[in-house]
Write a structure and sequence with these properties.
This protein has 548 residues and is mainly alpha-helical. The protein has a domain of 223 residues. It contains 30 helices and no strands. The N terminus is likely disordered.
């Protein structure tokens, strides 16, 4: 039945009929909204018709209260007062307009729609009072103002500044604001980034009892809106166990009925909700991940969800089944499934599969990269074949296995990878960085000499020189920290000096020379001084001091 309602016009007609009842008393109130998503309108229609929204700061439109002689003329005078009178008179006039919502809304709208129209500041003041009166029709007018304000701005920053004037008024409408916000979210004339912000408001405005109905939006619309919906829903559920339970139950229902494109999104959404993983869901994920008849996107989403729970025995069993079934690789789908599942397996299980299928010799670089984490390395000849591989991912993965104790042959070979390509260094920046990291892990005299030399080598990119400084500070104790401090004290170019000052915060054993050098730059100020002060705070905490 839900799908039938979403697919037809019945929802739209009923929802806007509800809104029309509110605006019938005043022809000046009109809403010329865009083509509205039936899915959004369905959710908002349920919430507006069946559940109260957040408490409002004032009563909704209804029969006028107070003195019987408060008429359109009096309301018009009060509208003039809120535009021109000082604080006390303004507050009194505002109070009377709100206390007589029928006459007040009519007078406010007459002034808003007058020719010539009010100035921008006056218009906003009028809408502030109108928003306090509230109602579906008022919310629709505020939405129109937001839409027009956004369209009038050319820059992204300007658009966000414009809508931020009107969003609080819509949020203050509570349940009455849902219909208007939904129409904005579905307005394709608005930038997607703006619609995403408004979608966050829509999730916030939805009463608890109808939040599960919002799941009709899961897996639908622009990809950025899908992501925003998932983020907003997770935040809304945080700290609300009863609501979370209701949403998880609704998601389980959706899992049974959703078509493949939506099913993948719903799996990811359920897995991302805090507390959403239980034994029953893991069993369902295992079945989906290992079902070759399922759409590939659904299987991938299921494996990704299992990976987030890889510490659980049931998830390990399911992932092992996925990886085992995918090997040996026969098609690209097998490669991707194995690539997702293998890193989440225990070292023993992954190592067994790597050795059984000799994945270090695979034709797929992603799997070779994973295999290098499990390949046995001995002697000093194992690295050379990996460095000859044409794929940078494979070369970087092999370098990640380099660790102390390192032979002089390996240290020297790794050192040749860093520098200018014309001098024989590796052509890929990722591989060069992996080589610097490997020298740091070697942590011996030969590696120290190479890293220290990089601090003064103009052929080494500045970012890699800074990485060498970090490795020296991390792995080489006092002599590493002093080497970096000495280079910083030599007053290099400021951009590089800032990087060196930042590198010193990683010092495993900071020395007096380190402290003095950082203090000297801190006293000088500027961008290098700020970086030096931050490093002092990391190294010495509350005891950081440059006095004396």
């Amino acid at each position: 039945m839900l799908g039938d309602l979403i697919g037809g016009q019945l929802v739209v007609e009923r929802l806007w009929a509800h809104s029309a009842c509110t605006v019938a008393h005043n022809p000046a109130v009109r809403h010329t909204g865009p083509d509205v998503s039936p899915a959004i309108l369905f959710v908002v229609g349920l919430a507006s018709a069946g559940a109260p929204g957040p408490a409002q700061s004032s009563p909704p439109p209804g029969p006028s209260t107070g003195a019987v002689d408060y008429d359109a003329s009096a309301a018009t005078v009060d509208v003039g007062a809120i535009l021109g009178e000082p604080n006390r008179a303004y507050l009194q006039a505002r109070g009377r307009l709100v206390a007589h919502p029928d006459a007040g809304a009519a007078a406010l709208l007459d002034r808003i729609d007058a020719v010539p129209p009010p100035a921008a500041a006056e218009r906003k003041r009028l809408f502030d009072v109108l928003a306090e009166i509230g109602g579906l029709a008022v919310a629709a007018r505020i939405a129109d103002e937001l839409r027009h304000a956004c369209a009038a701005e050319s820059s992204d920053h300007g658009k966000f500044m414009a809508i931020d004037q009107w969003r609080p008024l819509l949020r203050d409408q509570g349940a009455n604001g849902q219909t208007a916000v939904a129409s904005l979210v579905s307005d394709r004339e608005l930038p997607v980034a703006v619609r995403a912000v408004l979608l966050d408001d829509l999730v916030d405005l939805t009463p608890d009892q109808t939040v599960p109905d919002l799941l009709v939006l899961a897996g639908r619309g622009h990809v950025e809106l899908r992501r925003q919906f998932a983020r907003s829903l997770r935040r809304r559920l945080r700290g609300h166990p009863a609501l979370q339970t209701a949403v998880l139950a609704a998601l389980d229902t959706e899992l049974e009925a959703a078509d493949p494109p939506r099913l993948a999104a719903i799996i990811g959404l359920r897995a991302a909700i805090e507390g959403g993983i239980d034994d029953a869901f893991i069993a369902r994920l295992a079945a989906l991940a290992n079902d070759e008849a399922r759409a590939f996107g659904v299987r991938v989403a299921s494996v990704r969800a299992l990976v987030t729970q890889a510490a659980l025995p049931a998830a390990q069993t399911a992932l092992l089944a996925v990886a085992t079934a995918a090997l040996p690789i026969e098609e690209q789908a097998d490669e991707i499934l194995a690539w997702l599942a293998l890193p989440a397996l225990s070292a023993q299980q992954a190592g067994t599969l790597v050795r059984t299928h000799r994945l270090e010799h695979s034709q797929t670089p992603r799997l070779v990269g994973i295999a290098w984490a499990h390949v046995e390395v001995r002697g000093d000849l194992w690295l050379e074949p990996a460095l000859e591989d044409p794929w940078p991912e494979v070369r970087a993965a092999a370098l990640a296995r380099v660790a102390t104790p390192c032979s002089r042959r390996i240290v020297a070979r790794v050192g040749t990878l860093v520098g200018k390509v014309t001098a024989g260094a590796d052509a890929d920046a990722t591989v060069q960085r992996a080589a610097v990291d490997a020298l740091g892990r070697c942590a011996d005299d030969a590696a120290f000499g190479l890293l220290r030399g990089m601090l003064d080598d103009d052929s080494v990119a500045q970012e890699l020189s800074a990485e060498a400084a970090r490795e020296l500070a991390r792995h080489f104790g006092e002599r590493g920290a002093d080497a970096v401090a000495k280079r910083l004290a030599a007053r290099p170019e400021r951009g590089y000096a800032r990087r060196l000052a930042q590198a010193l915060r990683y010092s495993s054993t900071p020395t007096e020379r380190v402290r003095e050098t950082l203090c000297a730059w801190t006293r000088e100020g500027g961008e290098v001084g700020s970086a030096a002060a931050a490093s002092l705070a990391v190294l010495y905490g509350d005891a950081a001091s440059c006095e004396g």
